[in-house]
Amino acid sequence: MTEQFQETAYQLSEETALELFRSLLHKEGSWVNWGQKCQTLQKGGYDSQTIFEQTGFQAAQQNLIIVASQVFESLVNGGAKDDLLDYYRGPRSDILYEFRILNAGQRLAAAVLARDKRLELEEAHEAAKAIQEVSHISQLPSEFTRAAGDAVAYQCWKRAKQKRDLQERARLIAKGLKFVVSDSGRRAIEALLSDFSTTTAKSAPLLPVHRLEDEDQLARIIPFVGEYPLHLSQVTAASSLIVEPIFHIVEAIKSTKIVPLPGWQSVLKATDPVAILWPTDELPRSISSKPEKVLVVIDRAATSWNENSYFLTSEEDKLGLQWFAEEPEAHLIGQLVVILRAKNILDENNLTEPWQMDD
After folding, report:
1. What is the structure's pLDDT at 330?
2. Rounded distance between C-alpha atoms, residue 161 and residue 142, angstroms
3. Which of 291, 292, 328 is nearest to 309 (CA)?
């Protein structure tokens, strides 16, 4: 798993912060100490830009040494020997950063492997990925163990079997022999020197990616405050929904009913909309020959009168929709945005019954 330091800020005195800034500016101690000090400052409420301005440590470097120092700490807690810890104080923060995806036990094994094989950055990245992937395999081939070296060797063996190019195949075999630790794994890899048959690699399926092309493909979620007739307080007391940009993600509010509407421009432009279920025979103008219930959307933020809109009003706590030719004295609760009629389904059974054809 990836290391994540706590985001909760804690009290850090100005005197302590200044001392940390001074120490970082003069690069006192090892990179492990730098990472711990940067983390302390960030948890104390100082952002990465401020730390950069005071110390010269860029944001990316801060992130690297903070995470790497956490990995280093997990080696300490895992019982790593002093010579291993001294090796990574080297400095080799970039190598330890690659092991952030591993658990504590895997990190120690990977750190020993990287030290013994003198792995560079790219090799450490591949080793960490191999160790993680092997840990997810429920049934590993009997020739290989789950030791760190065998995990890398297994991946080389599997990939070599899929290569027709002899040069690339030979490179993977040599790499596998470099890392393998079990005798059975070594024999399996050496067998590829005389067995030139190949296996077909399974291809991952395409990702089901779609792009939203039109705004009305993205619903607007708004609070539903009830069915007419209802009290004024039901409209005014309903909590507004906080909508995040891009995908219109909405934070749910306990005990609040919500309704999705198409992303029409008028709906998206509404600042503080709510929805009310309203009978058509109570509307200011007739819209249907027979009574039905429609969804009325009111923007509570739009309370400035204009002659081209209907408004929700309240008289003796009775709500109503009205149009005013001139600016009224009545209190305007919100502007009518849209009235939504339910989809007209001719035969509702067609939605649930399987389609049949007469012989």
Report:
1. 82
2. 16
3. 328
Place of tokens 């195949």: 169
- 353 falls in which pLDDT band (50, 70, 90)? low
Residue 249 sits in the same domain as residue 122: no
Confidence of residue 350 (pLDDT cuts 50, 70, 90): low
CA angle 199–203–205, rounded 5-degree value: 160
- Is residue 355 included in any domain, yes or no? no
Six-digit token pair at 196? 């030139």
Residues 48 and 160 in one domain: no
Prediction pTM value: 0.58
| Sheet-wide strand order for 273-279 | 257-261, 220-227, 273-279, 293-299, 332-340, 310-315, 318-323
* Number of folded domains that form the chain: 3
Q: Which range marks the domain in which residue 86 is found? A: 1-136
Taking 60 as the threshold, does the pLDDT of residue 349 lie above it?
A: no
Same domain for 54 and 123? yes
- Long-range contacts of the stretch 121-130 (C-beta < 8 A, 24+): 121/94, 121/95, 124/95, 124/98, 124/99, 125/98, 126/152, 127/98, 127/151, 127/152, 127/179, 128/98, 128/99, 128/101, 128/102, 129/101, 130/154, 130/155
Compute φ and ψ for 299, nearest 5 degrees. Answer: -95, 105
Same domain for 15 and 102, yes or no, is: yes
Confidence bin at 2 (pLDDT 50/70/90)? very low
CA 230 to mean position of chain CA atoms: 40
